Every structure is written in structure tokens, then in C-alpha cells.
């Protein structure tokens, strides 16, 4: 088992005013039918309310704690504003307790880790995260541990962003983004090490199709150990899988993608 270092965490209990219980679904929809397999059990978790919008403009906030969040790979930072209001944000790499961060629409705002700014005012080549796709909607992309995007160029009212996947995408310069790379960079090196740790996370065992009978899976059956017997790997319901692209050819966002992650 390989685990991450928790040395950067300064507070073990979450802020009570910013949490609520996470309801378990067991992978079932409103009719009680399993729509996502291999979900169930797991430790009880509380949802931390994260401020992805960062819409308290021109108000500096002090970082008073770095905390663990069971619902995401990144660490979260607890901010306190001058009026004693507290909010959680994603903790960028290098952000420490005592630092002052700000969300601003002003051009002369300092390019500093943790500051939230318009793409219009962020220099090309800067690493950013928690990026809006529509003005005022709140950050939607580049939010997982260790991830960052880069501003490649600006043209008119559009920025060309290189995303962690390698995709180059067009985003309006009126959208906000946060400076820096998301923290907890070592997350990708973790190894859960045992089946029980998956169960703590609410992930139930996954049986291979090859190990099933033909009645249960298209890959099942055969004498002894045998191959899948199918020209292409498929799901239990016969749909192609393992690399089969399901993106709709006329998807509305196609026009915003300059370079695909896997052309």
C-alpha cells in the first residue's frame, strides 16, 4: 500500500457551518434499480461546500487551515474574510496557512497562487486551475489533485487553454480561473494495497466477464481458461467498450475544441 503524506493538513475537523451529510445511493436510481454497478457500503462522509464561483470580489481572505476532503483527491483550504465569513476553496500547491488570497476583476491584481482572476488579466503561459466554461457559472474543469491548465494564446475575446489531457480548448476571456496548480501532487502515486480499502471508499467487487457464464456476460463460458471469443470487448449488454467512443458527433461544444486529446 502506498499512501500520501498528510503533513500539510492543519485541521482535522471540518467547519460545521460548511458541511452536510452525503446520502448513499447504492448505485440505484429513483426507481430502486441499479444503474451504476459496484457501488455500496463505504464510510460515512460529509459533503464540504466548496466555493467554486469565488464571487466575493475585491475582498481579501486569509487562509486559516488546510483540510482533507474525502469527496475529492485535492486538499481544501478554509478561508476567512474580514467580516468573519468562512468558505472552502481548492488548495493550490504552495498555499500555506496565513497566506492572503483575493478574487478580483481588476487588471492590476497580483499574479499569485490562490488568487482568482479573469482570464483576460492572466498572462499567457501561466498555470491555472478551477476554470469556468461560462461566465459566472463557477469553476468546472481542472479541479483534481496535481492538475493544471496553461494559457497558450489569446485572440480577440477568446483564450486558448491547454488542458491536462492535452486538449486545446477555447474559453471566453470573461471567465474566471485560479492561479496555480492544484495541490496534493503525489496523489497519482498512491496504491490502495488491499481490497478492504476499496470497500471503505464504497466500491464493491468487480467480477471479470471472462470469469462468468455465457448467460451472464458475452465474454463468459468456454472450456478452461479461454479468451473473450468476441472480436471486440463488450459490456454485459453487448455494447463495445475499452476505447469505443460514445461522444455525439454533433455535440454543442465541438466548436470550442481546437485540438482533441486523442485525435
User: Alpha-carbon distance between the termini?
Assistant: 36 Å
Class computed from helices, strands and strand pairing = mainly beta
Low-confidence stretches: none
CATH topology of the domain at 16-186: SH3 type barrels
Write out key terms for the chains shown.
SH3 type barrels; four-stranded antiparallel β-sheet; globular; mainly beta; 263 residues; 13 strands; single chain; seven-stranded antiparallel β-sheet
Protein described:
The chain is mainly β. The chain has a domain of 171 residues: SH3 type barrels. It is 2% helix and 21% strand. The chain is built from one helix and 13 strands. The protein has a seven-stranded antiparallel β-sheet with strand order 7-12-8-9-10-11-13, with no helix packed on it. Strands 5-4-3-6 form a four-stranded antiparallel β-sheet, with no helix packed on it. β3 and β4 form a beta hairpin. The protein starts with 18 loop residues before the first strand and ends with a strand.
Amino acid at each position: 500500500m502506498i499512501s500520501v503524506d498528510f503533513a500539510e493538513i492543519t485541521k482535522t475537523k471540518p467547519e460545521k457551518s460548511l458541511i452536510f451529510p452525503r446520502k448513499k445511493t447504492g448505485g440505484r436510481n429513483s426507481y430502486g434499480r441499479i444503474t451504476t454497478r459496484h457501488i455500496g457500503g463505504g464510510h460515512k462522509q460529509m459533503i464540504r461546500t466548496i466555493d467554486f464561483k469565488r464571487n466575493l470580489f475585491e475582498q481579501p481572505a486569509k487562509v486559516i487551515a488546510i483540510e482533507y476532503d474525502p469527496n475529492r483527491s485535492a486538499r481544501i483550504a478554509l478561508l476567512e474574510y474580514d467580516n468573519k465569513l468562512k468558505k472552502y476553496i481548492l488548495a493550490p500547491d504552495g498555499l500555506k496557512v496565513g497566506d492572503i488570497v483575493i478574487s478580483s476583476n481588476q487588471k492590476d491584481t497580483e499574479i499569485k497562487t490562490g488568487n482568482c482572476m479573469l482570464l483576460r488579466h492572466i498572462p499567457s503561459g501561466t498555470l491555472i486551475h478551477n476554470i469556468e466554461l461560462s461566465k459566472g457559472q463557477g469553476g468546472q474543469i481542472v479541479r483534481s489533485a496535481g492538475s493544471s491548465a496553461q494559457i497558450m494564446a489569446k485572440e480577440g475575446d477568446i483564450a486558448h487553454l491547454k488542458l491536462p489531457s492535452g486538449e486545446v480548448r477555447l474559453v471566453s476571456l470573461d471567465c474566471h480561473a485560479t492561479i496555480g496548480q492544484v495541490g496534493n501532487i503525489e496523489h497519482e502515486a498512491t496504491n490502495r494495497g488491499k481490497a478492504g480499502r476499496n470497500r471503505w471508499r464504497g466500491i464493491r467487487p468487480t467480477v471479470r466477464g471472462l470469469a462468468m457464464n455465457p448467460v451472464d456476460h458475452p465474454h463468459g463460458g468456454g472450456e478452461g481458461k479461454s479468451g473473450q471469443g468476441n472480436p471486440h470487448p463488450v459490456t454485459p449488454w453487448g455494447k463495445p467498450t475499452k476505447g469505443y467512443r460514445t461522444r455525439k458527433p454533433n455535440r454543442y461544444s465541438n466548436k470550442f475544441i481546437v485540438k482533441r486529446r486523442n485525435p
